[in-house]
Amino acid sequence: MAGPTDLAFDPWDPAFVADPYPAYAELRARGRVIRYEPTDQWLVPHHADVSALLRDRRLGRTYRHRFSHEEFGRSAPPPEHEPFHTLNDHGMLDLEPPDHTRIRRLVSKAFTPRTVERLEPYVRRLADDLVAGLVRRGGGDLLTDVAEPLPVAVIAEMLGVPEADRDRLRPWSAAICGMYELNPTPETAARAVRASVEFSGYLRDLIAARRERPGEDLVSGLIAAHDEDDRLTEQEMISTVVLLLNAGHEATVNATVNSWWALFRAPAQLAALRADHLLIPTAVEELLRHDTPLQLFERWVLDDIEIGGTTIPRGAEVALLFGSANHDPAVFADPGRLDLTRRDNPHVSFGAGIHYCIGAPLARMELTASLSALLRRAPTLTLTAPPERTPGFVIRGLRGLDVEVG
After folding, report:
1. What are the domain boundaries of the chain?
2. CATH 3.30.9.10 given to domain 14-405
3. 3 state DSSP class of 75
4. Which of 92, 88, 399 is nearest to 253 (CA)?
5. Which of 34, 194, 274, 372: disulfide with 43, CB 3.0–4.6 Å?
C-alpha cells in the first residue's frame, strides 16, 4: 500500500521507515494539516499543533464515552477482535474522563514517585550487571543483551511477575503492539487477539494470587488502591497491568537502541559524551527527541476543530506526528543535528495533557542507567554492522544492534 504519489510520506515503504525525517520536512512545508487517504487520517506535522492538540479536549483517544459507533460514523470492530479491544479499551491510555480520571487517580496511588525512586539502586545494579556481561563476552547484540532485559526486568519486578514467567512478556507485548501500526493485517490482528487472551488469563491468575497473599508489588498496590468506595474492576486492573508492562518496556527498549545507533553515526557527539558524563541528563532528552521511539499518536475528533483554516469534522481521526514535531525547526535549532548539549528541548516523546506518560520518570531512570553503565564499563564500544530497522513505522526500533568491546 502506498501513499499519494505526490507525498514522500509512505509508512509502508522501507526507505521511508529507515529515515522518515526528510518526508516530515516536506509535510511541514505543505501546511499545518494534510489529508492522507490510505489511512483515512489527517496528518499533523508541526510541533505547536501537536502540542496543542494533545491538550485539546475536543479530541479523544476514544469516542465511546459520548457516541455510539453509528452516531460517530464508524464501524464497530470485527467480533473476532473482541479480546484485544476488551483488553485495550479498559486501559487508561484509551479512555477519556470520567473513567480516565478515576483510573489514573487510582493507579497513581500505587505508581508513586517514591515507588519509582526506590527502584533506582536495583535499576543501576541491573544495568551494571548486564553491561558487565556484554563486556565479558567482548560484545554482542545490544538489543537482546542490555536494551531489552533491563526494562522488562524492572517493570516485571515492580509488578511482582515471577522471574520464571518474564520470558513470556515480550512476545505477548510485541503481538499486542502490532495493532498500533497503521492498517494492521489480519495476521497481525490474529496474533494480537491470541496474545490478549493468553496475557489476560495469566494476569487474572496473578491478581487472584495477590488477593490471597498481598506483597509489596504494584499489582498488590492496585488491588488495594481505592477512593472511598471507588476501586479498579478486575478488567481495569488487567488492562492497566498490560499497559504498564507494554509501555513500561517497549519505548525504553527502542529508545535505547535508537540512541546508540544515533551516537555511532555522530562520533564527535559520542566522543564528547564519553569525555564528560555530566552530559548524560541532556543527552537522554536529546536522544529521545532525535529519533523518537513512538512516531505517531492518534486522536478522534469529538467536535469540529479548525487547523490553519482547514475544518476537521467530528468523526475524523488525526495522526499527531511526534517524530515530525520533534524535528520542527520552528522550535529546535538545526533539528536534524544530534546536539547532546541542547538545553531548550520541549520534545513531545512522552506526550502531553491528561495522557502524558505516567512512566516517564521510570523511562528516564532506565535510559540514564544503561547509558551511564555502557559509557563507564564499555568506553570502547563500537558498532560491528549497520542495523536493520523493524518494519513498523509507528513504533520505531531496530531488529538488533551488534557491537563489540575492544
Report:
1. 14-405
2. no
3. coil
4. 399
5. 34
φ and ψ at residue 271, rounded to 5 degrees: -65, -40
- DSSP result, 191-211: HHHHHHHHHHHHHHHHHHHHH
CA distance 99 to 132: 45
Q: 288, 322 in Cβ contact below 8 A?
A: no
Task: Say which residue the cell 505477548 belongs to.
Answer: 172
Q: Is the peptide bond before 45 cis (omega within 30 degrees of 0)?
A: no
pLDDT digits (tens, 9 = 90+) for 308-354: 999 999 999 999 999 999 999 999 999 999 999 999 999 999 999 99
Count Cβ atoms below 10 Å from residue 285 Cβ, excluding itself. Answer: 18
Residues 6+ apart with CB under 8 A from 269: 263, 338, 339, 340
| Three-class secondary structure assignment of 208-267 | HHHHHCCCCCHHHHHHHCEECCEECCHHHHHHHHHHHHHHHHHHHHHHHHHHHHHHHCCH
pLDDT tens sequence across 232-280: 899 999 999 999 888 878 889 999 999 999 999 999 999 999 999 999 9
How far is it, in rounded angstroms, from Cα 322 to Cα 352?
Answer: 11
In the DSSP assignment, the letter for residue 3 is -
Beta bridge mates, 299: 318
Label residue 30 exposed, middle or buried (CB < 10 Å: 0-12, 13-18, 19+). Answer: middle
β-bridge mates for residue 60, sequence order = 300
